[in-house]
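User: Design a sequence. Structure:
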């Protein structure tokens, strides 16, 4: 393990508590970004601010030919809009804002790695420390890419990390291939002819075909998708323009689907369109389907996952590294970065008890300070393996 100094570890806990106490959300992470930039400058890094509005990139070069290879390490800066229910000293000072996903820890681990590598790094190449705003609403990675992230900082590979409540402290898990799910939002419109509820024979009731559509959609996963490939299709909203005594003219069905391959994204959309079209034709109505893929599948490349595995084993030992872990059904905008360059995203144990074992986005969750050294050491090990 890259041995972090006791002084640095003490500083990291202080940084994490400060960031936790003053959470900011979305792209409006100005104070957090300024704190990160100041810390990176104090470590002697070249610092670039305001990328994608509030993103920060620190640059560290070492060796005779630092341009030979460059890698990027990414952490997220933002909190989420919920009211914290913890009562410890460093709880959120901002109403309805809380670091309930551990991004305070992610930021601190990457800062700690930057400080350690600036003093003790043993590698040949360039490291870009990427601090991204707005992971939660999914605009941060896109904003930084549109602002020329990889043109200005031409990394050949990128790595990410997330804490995982319920995974024991000291364990790190990863997999090759689809690691975090895509998310596709869908909206279905069924257009009938509404009227008074007392005279259904004089109208064309869209409720009946809409009900059949909702039932049939549930068969997409069980009958159109390979049963060994996890896919979820969820209906989350049903809207009508009816009233107590009015059969509606229109029904809108909304929901989302998640899967781990581009092939299954296409299968779900194709079958959904066929179901809506066929059902509406049978009832003499019009139907429309619109879809938007908010997040693509996040893929871990084989070579980068092998590097991550070696780095993790160097830090926590072979028996504490879980390869081939189950993919996660949540989505992450790291996927957009992974579309640009080969990538690997891993999960670090946050513990199983108390606040540390609470589900992400729970108002009583807290990042585990004991994981800070593990995460920062993993980053340092990864840099020295990839750029060794």
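Assistant: Done.
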């Amino acid at each position: 393990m890259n041995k972090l100094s006791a002084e640095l570890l003490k500083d990291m806990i202080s940084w994490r508590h400060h960031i936790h106490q003053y959470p900011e959300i979305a792209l409006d992470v100005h104070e957090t970004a300024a704190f990160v930039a100041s810390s990176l400058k104090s470590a002697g890094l070249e610092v670039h601010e305001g990328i994608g509005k509030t993103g920060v990139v620190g640059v560290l070069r070492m060796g005779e030919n630092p341009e030979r290879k460059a890698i990027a390490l990414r952490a997220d800066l933002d909190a989420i809009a919920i009211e914290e229910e913890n009562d410890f000293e460093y709880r959120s000072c901002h109403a309805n804002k809380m670091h309930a996903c551990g991004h305070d820890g992610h930021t601190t681990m990457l800062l700690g790695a930057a400080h350690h590598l600036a003093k003790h790094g043993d590698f040949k190449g360039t490291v870009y420390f990427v601090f991204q705003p707005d992971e939660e609403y999914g605009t941060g990675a896109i904003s930084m890419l549109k602002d020329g992230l990889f043109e200005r900082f031409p990394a050949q590979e990128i790595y990410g990390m997330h804490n995982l409540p319920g995974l024991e402290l000291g364990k790190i898990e990863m997999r090759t291939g689809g690691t975090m799910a895509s998310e596709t939002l869908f909206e279905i419109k069924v257009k009938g002819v509404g009227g008074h509820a007392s005279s259904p024979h004089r109208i064309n009731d869209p409720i009946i075909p809409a009900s059949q559509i909702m039932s049939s959609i549930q068969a997409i996963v069980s009958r159109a998708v390979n049963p060994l490939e996890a896919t979820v299709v969820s209906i989350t909203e049903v809207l009508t323009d009816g009233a107590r005594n009015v059969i509606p003219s229109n029904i809108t069905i909304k929901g989302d689907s998640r899967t781990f391959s581009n092939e299954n994204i296409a299968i779900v959309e194709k079958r959904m369109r066929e179901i809506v079209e066929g059902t509406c034709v049978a009832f003499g109505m019009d139907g429309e389907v619109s879809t938007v893929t908010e997040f693509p599948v996040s893929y871990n490349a084989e070579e980068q996952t092998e590097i991550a595995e070696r780095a993790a084993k160097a830090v926590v030992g072979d028996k504490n590294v879980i390869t081939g872990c189950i993919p996660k059904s949540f989505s992450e905008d790291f996927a957009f970065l992974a579309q640009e360059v080969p990538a690997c995203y891993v999960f670090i144990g946050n513990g199983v008890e108390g606040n540390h074992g609470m589900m992400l986005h729970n108002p009583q969750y807290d990042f585990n300070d004991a994981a800070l050294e593990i995460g920062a050491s993993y980053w340092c090990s990864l840099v020295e393996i990839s750029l060794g």
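The first helix runs from residue 6 to 21. The chain has two domains: 6-179+297-386, 183-295.
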